[in-house]
Model the fold of this input.
Amino acid sequence: MASMASEWSENLIELEGGPRRFGSEVDIWQLAELPEYLDPPCWAVIAARLLLSLPFEEAVPQVLEYIGEAARADRTWVMRFNDDVTLLRNSNEWCRDGVSSHVADLQNVPVTMMGEILAPLREGRSVAINDVAMLPRSLRSLQVEFRHQQIQSTLTVPVHNDDGRLIACIGLDAARSRRRWTIDEVHALIQIAALMGVANTEGAPRRKPKDEEFSVPIYLKSGRSARGVPVASIASVRADRDGSLVGLRDGAQLTDDRPLRWWQSVLPDQDFLRVHRSALVNIRLVDLLRRRAGGQDLELLVKGCPAPVPVSRPSTAELRRRLGA
Done:
């Protein structure tokens, strides 16, 4: 404990005022804020705090950003597998400034691209590739993909659920220069993967609706993070200053840097309708159309939305037609 206090001394504030109550050899400290970078043994503590305090899907991007910065990596990501581990997709990604994003390139990709490194991942073993240029000929297709993403070194750690089934991988990429992943870094990522496996099992449905499983996603962008979500899972999009707040049918509320008009231009007209100048809704997820309390205006109750969505008078006729109401 003494060495930790010394190491963090710049970030600790000694409480002042009044005589010491516990003797001259007792120091009382208050933690002002966490240091910008913690050593790998502390990463899982931060990840656990995020996974325990936030819904799983909201916590994952923050976990990726934290470990990306802490590990001084160039890219962090989560790859998810379908139930029979035949397809994979990049569901979440964080990139350092100036590093290219490839989340859109890796959607519904056959796992055969991973070649023989899939076997150790199934068995719960992690794969640290310190120099992509040294991969054997048997992994040539994977090496080509790594070079396309400018990856020089990469670390991949499997995520298993409580049944021991491989459901995802979490990883770090080094794109600007080669690096050798340390034992502490590997152990830290293994701990985070274990936490994610438990959090996903406890905090999310074991089975997603069929129309959400590996459907073509749309990508939410918030700062340097990108996340793919199935279009069918989007319940509403509401204006939020210069960006948007995207509500999913599982109740998650996610921010996106692009304005509402962008979302209106890309979401399919047959499923989505702009019901107010500040809101789009997924017609398929509407539970109830009703009058607002104490007024004549209408509002919608939509699956996953914590508050009713207002309906403007000009959009009422089209909304009723689409709902058959």
Notes: Residues 205 and 211 are 14 Å apart (CA to CA). The mean pLDDT is 82. The longest strand covers residues 87-95.
